[in-house]
Amino acid sequence: MTLTAAPPRTTPTSAPRPPRRRLRYAGTVAVFLLPSLIPLVLFTLVPMAGSLWVSLHEWNLIEPMRWVGLDNYGEVLADPKTRAAFLHTLTFIAGYLPLVYAGGLGLAMLLNRAMGGRNIFRAIYFLPVITSWVVVALMWKWLLNPASGIVNWALGLLGVEGPGWWTDPTWAMPSIILASAWKDLGFVMIILLAGLQAIPNEYHEAARVDGASAWQRFRRITLPLLSPSTFFVVVISLINGFQVFDQVHVMTGGGPGGATEVVVEQVYRLTFQYGRAGAASALSWLLFAVVLLVTLIQVRVQRRWVNYGY
Amino acid sequence: MASAFPVSKALKYLLVVGGALVMLFPFAWAVITSITPGGSVLASPPDFTPEGANLGAYGKLLEVTPFWRILLNSAWIGAASTILQLVTSAMAAYAFARLPFPGRGALFAVYLATLMVPLQVLIVPLFIEMRTFNLIDTYFAVLAPTIASAFGVFLLRQAIAQVPKEFDEAAVLDGAGHFRIFALIVVPLIRPALATFAIFGFMASWNSYLWPLVIIKSPEFMTLPLGLAELHGRFTTEWNVVMAGSVVSVVPILILYLFAQKHVIASVAQSGLK
Questions:
Q1: Does the structure show a pLDDT above 80 at B258?
Q2: Per-residue pLDDT averaged across B134-146, rounded?
Q3: What is the ipTM of this complex?
Q4: How do residues A274-305 score in pLDDT, each as one tens digit?
Q5: A229 lies in some domain
Q6: Which one of A1, A49, A129, A146 has the lowest number of neighbouring Cβ atoms within 10 Å?
């Protein structure tokens, strides 16, 4: 390319232009932006506004809407079923998160050091992550089948009488937690493994020279330096945990006797079974507010325990 | 850390292999169950080498549901959703990274805000929107919410921002407009980010359950998760048929995964490092 006497052409980003070129520029921006913006408006922003609007009405999706102001919010907040749904959701999180984090961390630490076939193991652990929730839920529902499931058969070999799993109100949530942790273990492991590999080996070497025990090195070096990855796992798991639905809907449908009725299950039921679209929308916004609040708190609190910069 | 206390290499391998078996066994058991003849599925003790193993459950699967069609639906909806998201997100990301316009920052903030709104908040009005336009039980309805992706715009904008501006400027001197810069310079340079996003997009579509559950009623428009859940609802105790369906629906994504495995894992690993 040889450019000698030609006047410097303006770069596409420089500002003042003659009107015709400005119009053309606006057209260019529109062409780049609108394919994304139009669907975003139609299928996200309008429904968002619509959801707020619906939440202020009593509506069974068929008859005309009836304005009720904030009544739906009041009702949903006072409804013991809401409290139960949040409690079940929190129970799910309380079981799922420690299990998936401890398991993922254990696997990540095992795989952190070079070993034969490491990539194969990593790929195997990740396999459930790419499997859909519905398939995972069905496979586990079958494994945990009370009468003819293989898990109870294996427990029987050990002399333990297996519980009724998803048919038993006490064991239904643990069944869902087990299936969920199994599915996400590989995901958590990959995140934590990447975090572990970013920790310079010299730190461990130096500590070892100073005579630190394995436990001390784990407590004082690995865990603090892994905290950004831990933070990511916790934030993502909590956001997903509050929205748990697929595996619950397939494994128990909220049962038995409402024992696993989580918040999104409740939203689904209110809308499509009880014809309470307004209450359902109010509940979904309540859930959104809770997730937002929990996430914001975590972002605030992270300064106290998350260690960026080595 | 493993090396400090004298955990032998053998024990470590034992744990890793044991873990791998726990991950693989449910899949293996699904395959075994799917070839077990109907009469002996519920037999106790479970049979690891079922007598008279056959593909009867797969035959029944095809008989009671339009399963090929459902599989094809999932495949093409996944592909279409991925391609649409890639195109719309990459173009919008280019606008946000390279084309200054009034209100750009505010609009980007709106995009980011939508990232936080979960699907279930949108479900009721989306359903009503689709009903108003008579789109219930159509492919379009399944695809619609996945055409634009705020996550994709965010991810790809970051990638485009890292492309040195000198590249565009050189192209401008050569007389290239934005479309050529986008297609010939930016897109090739952000291929890794596009691949990452494509993987996430396809997996999200392939696994999506709640929205299809709400919007699809007829078997011929169902996607795999919905078809499987529906199959399970009808054949509650015929686990060989349900497992046959599960196996068939895992195989395509498994093949894709075997090819893209390294890239998939690298993408996920990276997402946690930011």
A1: yes
A2: 94
A3: 0.86
A4: 989 999 999 999 999 998 899 888 888 887 88
A5: yes
A6: A1
Give yes or no: residues A195 and A280 share one domain.
yes
CATH of the domain at A114: 1.10.3720.10
CB contact A22 to B (< 8 Å): no
Question: Which of A107, A112, A228 minimises the CB distance to B19?
Answer: A107
Task: Name the residue range of residue A82's domain.
Answer: 72-305
Structure tokens at A86: 């949040």
User: Is the separation of the CB atoms in B85 and B149 below 8 Å?
Assistant: yes
By three-state DSSP, how is residue A205 classified? helix
> Nearest Cβ partner of B261 from A31, A111, A123?
A123
Closest Cα in chain B, distance from residue A15 (Å) = 8
Do A166 and A252 contact (CB within 8 A), yes or no? yes
Class (C level, CATH) for B66-225 = mainly alpha
Tens-digit pLDDT profile for residues A63-84: 888 999 899 999 989 999 999 9
A209-261 per-position pLDDT tens digit: 888 888 888 888 889 889 888 988 998 899 889 999 999 999 998 889 889 99
